[in-house]
Amino acid sequence: MYTTLISVEQLQTLQASGAPLMVFDCSFDLANPAAADALFAQAHIAGAVPAHLERDLSAHGPAEAVNGGRHPLPRRERFAAWLSRTGFANGMQAVVYDRNGVNYCGRLWWMLKWAGHEAVAVLDGGLQAWEAAGGTVESGPAAPRPATHFSLGLERRTLAHTARVAEQLGRPGQALIDARAAARYRGEVEPLDPVAGHIPGALNRPFQANFTPEGRFKPAEELRAEFEALLAGRPAASVVHHCGSGVSALPNLLAMEVAGLGPTALYAGSWSEWCNTPGLPCAQG
After folding, report:
1. Which of 26, 43, 200, 220 could form a disulfide with 104 if both were Cys (CB 3.0 to 4.6 A apart)?
2. Would you call 275 a catalytic residue per the annotation?
3. What angle do CA 193, 199, 204 make, to 5 degrees?
4. Which of 105, 243, 275, 282 is catalytic?
5. Nearest-5° Cα angle at 162, 159 to 166
6. Residue 66: what pLDDT?
7. Displacement of CA 114 from its chain's centroid (Å)
8. Which domains does the chain have, with CATH numbers?
């Protein structure tokens, strides 16, 4: 069972073994959400199914959302129904990837953990690593698969809500890590949300810091040293990850698990929910 990362070679071996497996392509374009389907149709790992950030992995309206922000999580029951429609079942290994530097596939990785499914891993290096190794790709739409029944289990990862984050603000039991680019964190630019800045006291680690120039996760020891330096004595168990809308925070959360410092919590509402909640403090600089 793979629970954090899986290499191209490991995935190829798994495919050849005939083990129960589903591969999900989470490629996305935040500036052009409609492009996700075109990216999938252009090229994807043979046998993969698409997982669209907005259509499949986000709530459609407050009635089915468990948090606020720009990409609210759907209720677990709705997510389980989508998994069942795609043909995913509890006994399967899930492998998730994108072609965007792990910016989007971490969302599905975390959601499966949240749904109680431990056997899910991110393809290290994404589609680019797969193609570079000569992995089989195909084009066009996904082949239809028979529906199954996915049963929810105990939540295996912690979802933090705005009330909890606000209540713990400034206390030693909570260390916030913001995964956005440094300029957005400092409030110098804000392309998406109505307020620029960050949650007071949050530490900044842009999610791209977890990767080598080749697009793979850094070695576990290197990640561990970097996060321990960032936390400066704060306990890893106190960490709550966030970003703009709860998506690009996931590479940081996953990297901490690769480093042996997890699991940690996710504030999925992130800055987009925080800065739109009346009365909450915002910082700049």
Report:
1. 26
2. no
3. 95
4. 243
5. 120
6. 96
7. 11
8. 5-138 (3.40.250.10), 159-274 (3.40.250.10)
Over 90: is that where the pLDDT of 112 sits?
yes
pLDDT in tens, 148-183: 999 999 999 999 999 999 999 999 999 999 999 999
79: pLDDT strictly greater than 90:
yes
Report field, pTM of the whole predicted structure over 0.85: yes
Amino acid at 245: S
CA–CA gap between residue 51 and residue 36 (Å, rounded):
9
The C-alpha angle with vertex 210 and arms to 207 and 212, in degrees rounded to 5, equals 130
Return the percentage of the chain with pLDDT > 70, whole number. 100
pLDDT value of residue 248:
96
248 and 269 Cβ atoms separated by less than 8 Å: no
